[in-house]
tRNA-2-methylthio-N(6)-dimethylallyladenosine synthase (Granulicella cerasi), 458 residues
Amino acid sequence: MKTFYIETFGCQMNAHDSEKVVGTLVHEGYTQVVDEAEAGLILYNTCSIRDKAEQKVFHRLNEYKRMQGEGKKFAVIGCVAQQEGQKIFERAPYVSLVAGSASYRNLPDMLARLEAGETRITGLDDRETEETFDTDFTSRSNPHRGYITIIEGCDKFCAYCVVPYTRGKERSRTSASVLAEAQRIAGLGYTEIQLLGQNVNSYRDPSGKRSFAELMVAVGEINGIERVRFTTSHPRDFTKDIVDAIDATPTLCNHVHLPVQSGSTNVLRAMQREYTREWYLERIAWTHAAKRDISLTSDIIVGFPGETDQDFEDTITLLEAVKYDSIFGFKYSPRPNTPAIHMHDSISEEVKAERLAILNTRQREIQREHYARHLNQVDRVMVEGGRNSRGQVLGRSMQNKTVNFTCETTPTVGSYVDVKITQVFPSSLVGEAVSEAIAPSAALLAQQALNARVVVLS
Ligand code: SAH
Ligand code: SF4
Ligand code: F3S
């Protein structure tokens, strides 16, 4: 029997790539196992975004070394694989396959060569490809959410970021193929779909039929679909029709993740983000003026080379102007191949840490105030987990907020329940069920039972 074990790091696109890789392997006759000791093939799907990621990968590969005598084969895929390429064979000679995400459509061929005993198989030369990795065999391991990659790669080349080098050229799928996949996901019983892309709103339909906003609406109109999420949006390509579509289409989630990175126009220029603070705030004004309460979230980098106290202060005042519902704050880390690595990493580790702490403290205060708007609201919540130690069930609102709520019987994951919010915390809501649960379809329950036997994410 051909068995494999896969471990995945990184963003949602990487997690979903793993679902596609797993689906492809299963189609090629492999069985997924949850214990690496039982696997004939071990795949490691890597992320390279920050913090000397490649060192961590080599460290992990060293741990695999002890298993090489057991006849196992090893594959390193994803962003570190693309970045380090042949170097992986030099440092971990027991690895037989190294491939970046732009080459996954050649996986069946690479797997055949692996089975034939080849030991230096690479998929590293496809970053200029126009092709996307669409497969009918995607393994749907999330119990309540179906993912669709609508656009791959990135052409933005922000000064600090490895993604354009690891994932290659920006390329979109046709809207017809996205809609066909969305139909298939709805057919499996999923009611929630998340559209994925490094910059999902840079989507350009190769067939010229639909804009990004029109595509979202078309997905939201599919029979059975209750929630359409999309991530990540880039401010540069964020157009007002996206806000109008959210306002007009109740199935589109009223949440936009719109990473600003910095509130200072000077830093944004050095980062090559191609927008100014004012440009960004204009887009925020559109969402603030919307009829629906659109939740905003962001990513912020502190300590980019040359960031002054005033630049950092500009980021803090931007937080106050936008009132995000959550942010991911990161200390700048220099990454291989990026232009910023040649800039002097001028901000000390202490100052970076200090700025990050100030950022997070201020943001927590903002959330403490801003979440109060939900008190006494009735929110429709999708159940995403079982009961916690307090006996509350875990769910998520349309805005992607965590809602812990009490109810008599425990609803199945994927159910919807109306919840009255009785307490607010800086990053979660607490409430009580005020409706019966709407249970998921038999199709989704069957899909969940199938999933229960496999684990994709670590
Ligand atoms: N395409 C998305 C983000 C992709 S990476 C966008 O442009 O918004 C996810 C986040 O990681 C980024 O938003 C950024 O905040 C952070 N990040 C990327 N490179 C980084 C680096 N070198 N150091 C610190 N944070 C980084
Ligand atoms: Fe990286 Fe910038 Fe592309 Fe986002 S837009 S993936 S931060 S290069
Ligand atoms: Fe990491 Fe690659 Fe995603 S670097 S964040 S896995 S695009």
In short: The longest helix spans residues 349-370. The chain has three domains: 2-128, 145-372, 375-442. Residues 154, 156-158, 161, 163-164, 198-199, 234 surround iron/sulfur cluster (ligand 2) (CB under 6 Å). The longest strand covers residues 378-387.
